[in-house]
Amino acid sequence: MELSEGRKKVVVFDYGFGNVRSAERALARAGADVEITRDFDTAMNADGLLVPGVGAFAACMRGLKEARGDWIIGRRLSGGRPVMGICVGMQILFARGIEHGVETEGLDEWPGAVEPLQAAVVPHMGWNTVDAPADSRLFAGLAPDARFYFVHSYAVQDWSLEVHNPALSAPRVTWSTHGKPFVAAVENGALWGTQFHPEKSGDAGAQLLTNWIGTL
C-alpha cells in the first residue's frame, strides 16, 4: 500500500472479530492511511496496529492465535511499535478473561482479569463519561465531560500494575463507572487500549484517534 505523503500507515488487524470497516473509516477520517489485513509482514511494518474485538473473550483469543496475532502483537511491543486494542481487543491484552465461570488465558501484557460487570443493568450499552489522568495523551484536548460509546458486559475492575523503576513511565489508566468503576482506557508505552468504541463515539472518538495517530 502506497502511503500518502505525511500520513501514517495503520493496519486494522482482521482476525474475524470486530467491526473492521467502521474502524477503517474512523481512522481514515482521523488522518491515517489504513489497511485491513491479517498479513504478517504488513501488520509488522505498519506505523500503528489497531486490534478490534467484538464477542466472547475466549473466541477472540482463538481467532487471534489462529491469525498469529498474538505473535505479531508481542513482536511489535518488544520493538516499541505501537499497538492499540478496542473493546474485547483491549480486554485480551490482560492476563485472563472469566466468562460464565470459565477462565481463558489472555495475552498477559497487563495483569488483571476481565470479569462480569457488577451493575443493575448489564450490558453497559450507551454513552458514558470517563475520568482520565491530567497528563493523558490519548484524551488530550477533550473536555472532562466528553462522552464515549460503550457496549460490554465484562471489564477489568482492578488495576494492579505498578512501576517502581523511576526511569519508566507509569501507565496512565482512565476509569469509567457502571455499577462500580472499571478500566476504560490504558496508555502504557507503545501499548494503548480503550474499552469503549472510539469509532462510534462521534467527535470525541475522532479526536482520540487523531491523538493516537499523532504519537505514531
Automatic annotation (TrEMBL):
Keywords: Amino-acid biosynthesis, Cytoplasm, Glutamine amidotransferase, Histidine biosynthesis, Hydrolase, Lyase. It comes from the Bacteria. It is found in: Cytoplasm. InterPro entries: Class_I_gatase-like (IPR029062), GATASE (IPR017926), Imidazole-glycPsynth_HisH (IPR010139). It catalyses: L-glutamine + H2O = L-glutamate + NH4(+); 5-[(5-phospho-1-deoxy-D-ribulos-1-ylimino)methylamino]-1-(5-phospho-beta-D-ribosyl)imidazole-4-carboxamide + L-glutamine = D-erythro-1-(imidazol-4-yl)glycerol 3-phosphate + 5-amino-1-(5-phospho-beta-D-ribosyl)imidazole-4-carboxamide + L-glutamate + H(+). Coiled coil: none annotated. Its main location: cytoplasm. The active site is at C87, H197, E199. Residues 11-211 form the Glutamine amidotransferase domain. Pathway: Amino-acid biosynthesis; L-histidine biosynthesis; L-histidine from 5-phospho-alpha-D-ribose 1-diphosphate: step 5/9. Its EC number is 4.3.2.10, 3.5.1.2. GO terms for molecular function: lyase activity. PANTHER family: IMIDAZOLE GLYCEROL PHOSPHATE SYNTHASE SUBUNIT HISH (PTHR42701:SF1). HAMAP family: HisH. Heterodimer of HisH and HisF. IGPS catalyzes the conversion of PRFAR and glutamine to IGP, AICAR and glutamate. The HisH subunit catalyzes the hydrolysis of glutamine to glutamate and ammonia as part of the synthesis of IGP and AICAR. The resulting ammonia molecule is channeled to the active site of HisF. This is Imidazole glycerol phosphate synthase subunit HisH. It comes from Streptomyces vulcanius. The lineage of its organism: Bacteria, Bacillati, Actinomycetota, Actinomycetes, Kitasatosporales. The gene is hisH.
